[in-house]
Amino acid sequence: xxxxxxxxxxxxxxxxxxxxxxxxxxxxxxxxxxxxxxxxxxxxxxxxxxxxxxxxxxxxxxxxxxxxxxxxxxxxxxxxxxxxxxxxxxxxxxxxxxxxxxxxxxxxxxxxxxxxxxxxxxxxxxxxxxxxxxxxxxxxxxxxxxxxxxxxxxxxxxxxxxxxxxxxxxxxxxxxxxxxxxxxxxxxxxxxxxxxxxxxxxxxxxxxxxxxxxxxxxxxxxxxxxxxxxxxxxxxxx
Length: 238
Ligand SMILES: Nc1ncnc2c1ncn2[C@@H]1O[C@H](COP(=O)(O)OP(=O)(O)O)[C@@H](O)[C@H]1O
Ligand SMILES: [Mg+2]
Fold this sequence. Notes:
Elements: E1 6-15, E2 18-28, E3 33-37, H1 44-51, E4 56-64, E5 67-68, H2 74-80, E6 82-85, H3 97-104, H4 113-119, H5 121-125, H6 136-149, E7 154-158, H7 166-181, E8 186-190, H8 194-200, E9 203-208, E10 211-216, H9 218-223, H10 225-232
Parallel strand pairs: 3-8, 3-9, 6-7, 7-8
Antiparallel strand pairs: 1-2, 1-4, 4-5, 9-10
The structure holds adenosine-5'-diphosphate (ADP) and magnesium ion.
Magnesium ion binds next to helix 1.
């Protein structure tokens, strides 16, 4: 599947009676890279979970490659081309790396595992190890690789660098950049590591209390000191 566009209009969602995402509208071009920034609790995960169909939607539309998906259940959205790598790094701890990857194949031949191993050679070395034996970085690689094996046209990544050592972060970001430049995937990256996100993205949004509080390019972001200080609560980029 080639990369697909994502069009979000007036999206509001939450959990039970609690509204979290408030009237979000956003256009992400096919094959582009969007970074989603914002402090803890501002709704970044909820936005991705809403796109993936895992929250209660109060209103609004989501079009993936021109097709309306907001009414579809989560599994159907995945089949339509939405790949979601949650912040929780969902892997099966009692299965081996290879068994975890089999789950992501979705009917593709086993040889396709080679795609995952080419992207993350560490996973090949550890293919007989249990998920529970992996480091945090390896778990993130496994969680990402399993989703990518399903050949999504839009990939949602929720804080993939959280808690990882700088050298592992660089490896992951290089893999994401490679995926993006292949033209096969549109990538939406939620990150707290601001500089890594700015280096990666073509467009940036900052979320505040479930809304988009700022939007622009990485260059505009870096030039707008107000954004950095007021919305992200930091004294400068790091
Ligand atoms: N399952 C849930 N049930 C109720 N409220 C939730 C749930 N998950 C998140 N929230 C609330 O939604 C808001 C946004 O959280 P979240 O989307 O996780 O933010 P972020 O990813 O930016 O840290 C927070 O106020 C949080 O407490
Ligand atoms: Mg989050």
